[in-house]
């Protein structure tokens, strides 16, 4: 997707906006996929700053240099955008979406502690709002044939499929080609510790002795997990978590 979007943005907005915008978008996406909700939300601030510069360029003909601070994002700024000449999306729809992202990023779970953390819920809203904003910019500026533009927009807006599906009473790794060892890492990345037998049932590994000998013990030996045979539980190690993140990002490409 990025390879198709990059030249469109570059041709209209230049290298600096393009690079910073796409870098922040990819950081949001990657942190969302590996469930780093706070990081995903924090990265959204950089995305908002780059899109605000796009709005300035589209509505006022120039934009605030990256070395200079943008004005506070308040209702007066929204009014300036709305009163300018230009497409309605640049004047009203994108600015209001950005303001929503900005407010959630600054005023919710990222910086405040409550009884129930809203971070996952907020990160989900931010992630798909960011996708919509990027898709809308491409729709308005691509200059390509309608069908080609539509394909690019669809690629941006397409929903990310979770690697691990959780039903009411069941869990499954959705990609059937993922090895048993990697499935264990994904399960423990999602929740650690887990019972050995529970993981075996999720993975549908039939042979109990081989599950321990051929799947868990090699991961333990590689220092990716820790096995406690006494209570029948497994923990993921820091190196195992890093490997699981790499695997999850690869599966979502």
Protein architecture, described:
With 253 residues, the chain is mainly alpha-helical. It has 2 domains: 156 residues; 88 residues, Winged helix-like DNA-binding domain superfamily/Winged helix DNA-binding domain (Arc Repressor Mutant, subunit A). Helices cover 66% and strands 6% of the residues. A 3-stranded antiparallel beta sheet has the order 3-5-4. Strand 1 and strand 2 form a beta hairpin. Helix 1 packs antiparallel against helix 5, helix 2 packs parallel to helix 5 and helix 4 packs antiparallel against helix 5. The longest helix is centred in the first third of the chain and has 32 residues. The protein is elongated.
Question: Short description, anyone?
Answer:
The protein is mainly alpha-helical.
**Class based on secondary structure composition and strand pairing:** mainly alpha
Radius of gyration: 22 Å
Low-confidence stretches: 111-116
Whole-number tally of structural domains: 2
Strand content: 5-15%
For the termini, the CA-CA separation is: 10 Å
Number of helices: 10
Roughly what is the average pLDDT, rounded to an integer? Answer: 88
N-to-C SSE string, H for helix and E for strand: HHHHHHEEHEHHEEH
> What is the total tally of β strands?
5
Helix content range of the residues, please? 55-70%
Shape from CA axes?
Answer: elongated
For the largest beta sheet, what order do the strands appear in spatially?
A: 3-5-4
Largest sheet descriptor: 3 strands, antiparallel
């Amino acid at each position: 997707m990025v390879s198709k979007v990059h030249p469109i943005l570059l041709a209209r907005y230049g290298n600096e906006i393009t690079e910073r915008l796409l870098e922040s978008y990819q950081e949001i996406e990657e942190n969302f996929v590996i469930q780093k909700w706070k990081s995903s939300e924090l990265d959204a601030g950089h995305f908002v700053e780059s899109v605000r510069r796009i709005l300035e360029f589209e509505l006022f003909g120039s934009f605030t240099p990256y070395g200079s601070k943008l004005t506070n994002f308040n209702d007066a700024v929204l009014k300036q955008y709305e009163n300018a000449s230009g497409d309605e999306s640049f004047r009203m729809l994108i600015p209001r979406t950005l303001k929503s992202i900005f407010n959630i990023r600054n005023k919710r779970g990222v910086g405040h502690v409550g009884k129930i953390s809203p971070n996952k819920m907020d990160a989900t809203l931010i992630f798909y709002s960011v996708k919509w904003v990027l898709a809308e910019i491409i729709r308005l500026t691509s200059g390509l044939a309608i069908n080609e533009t539509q394909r690019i927009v669809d690629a941006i807006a397409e929903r990310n499929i979770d690697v691990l599906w959780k039903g009411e009473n069941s869990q499954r790794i959705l990609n059937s080609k993922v090895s048993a060892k990697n499935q264990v890492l994904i399960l423990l990345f999602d929740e650690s510790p887990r019972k050995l037998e529970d993981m075996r049932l999720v993975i549908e590994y039939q042979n109990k002795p081989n599950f321990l000998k051929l799947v868990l013990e090699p991961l333990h030996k590689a220092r990716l997990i820790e096995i406690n045979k006494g209570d029948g539980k497994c923990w993921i190690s820091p190196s195992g978590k890093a490997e699981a993140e790499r695997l999850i990002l690869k599966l979502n490409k």
